[in-house]
Amino acid sequence: MISFAENIEPWQECLVEASDKACQDAVQWLSMLRPRGNTCLLHALEKAFAYPDVQGVYLLTDGKPDISYNLLLAEHHLKSQNIKVHTVSFNASEKSGNEFLKMLSNLSGGRYHSPYGDVDGHLVAHRMLTEGFTDEDDPVLPLFEGDDLRRLAKEIDKARQFVTQARSFQFGILEKQMSASRDVSVEGNDVSDTRNGITPGKIT
Fold first, then answer.
1. What is the pLDDT of residue 203?
2. What's the pLDDT at 183?
3. Most distant CA pair in the chain, distance
4. Contact predicate 1/30, CB 8 Å
5. Distance between CA atoms of 193 and 41, rounded to whole angstroms?
6. 185 is in which domain, residue-wise?
7. Is 33 within a domain?
8. CATH number of the CATH domain containing 26
9. Contact 88, 60 (CB under 8 A)
10. Number of domains in the chain
11. What is the DSSP string of 53-102?
């Protein structure tokens, strides 16, 4: 882990195995960080790329970098050595910065994450878990920005379509069964009337 503001500050000078002890130390280190000054993103990426055996980088930020987006993308292309950069935005209002994070993740083959949508995603998830849904459009899913949440939303939409189709098939089968049951009932009444000497449509 590397913090970046006016300067960069690595948690460790090498990659560390994710043991319980290491995770506890990392959380404690993170709790001491405070936002301040600029966002020296390029130096942080260079430091991350310099670690031996690094395979991917998760970049978490809520602000603009302190140099141009184009320069950052060019430097990343030259120095990343095919390392995937997964970006996470914590500032939904920073449109230009978020577009840059999307480009950076796409350029490296990584994924872009953003927890924000146009409506409260937590409320929608709660409604679906507690109330279910009656059709394909209720409740309406947020317009997620992050790659993973957008993929999840597409899968949910597919599932809702399948459920709607299944309900339609079930209704059709029930209709056929009820129709067949009515036909059998009418035929049974005709047979009973014939045995009793009653001809349908005639009075004897």
1. 46
2. 64
3. 107
4. yes
5. 91
6. 120-198
7. yes
8. 3.40.50.410
9. yes
10. 2
11. T--EEEEEESS--SS-HHHHHHHHHHHSTT-EEEEEE--TT-HHHHHHHH
Helices (H), the chain: 20-31, 41-49, 69-79, 95-108, 121-131, 147-195
pLDDT in tens, the chain (204 residues): 888 887 888 898 888 888 899 999 989 988 888 777 777 788 888 888 888 888 888 888 876 776 666 666 666 665 556 788 898 887 767 777 788 888 888 888 888 887 665 556 667 767 767 776 665 666 666 666 777 777 777 777 787 788 778 888 888 888 888 877 776 665 555 545 555 555 555 444
Strands 56-61 and 84-89: parallel
Answer whether residue 27 is part of any domain: yes
Nearest alpha carbon to residue 103 among 127, 78, 69 = 69
How far apart are the C-alpha atoms of 5 and 28, rounded to whole Å? 19
Exposed/middle/buried for residue 64 (C-beta within 10 Å: 0-12, 13-18, 19+): middle
Q: How many CB atoms lie within 10 A of CB 23?
A: 11
Q: Give backbone dihedrals phi and psi of 4, rounded to 5 degrees, phi first.
A: -140, 125
**55 to each of 45, 49, 82, how far by Cα in Å?**
13, 9, 8
Distance between CA atoms of 123 and 129, rounded to whole angstroms?
10
- Residue 139: asked if its preceding bond is cis (omega within 30°), the reply is yes
pTM above 0.70, yes or no: no
Cα(154)–Cα(138) distance, integer angstroms: 15
Position 184 in a domain: yes
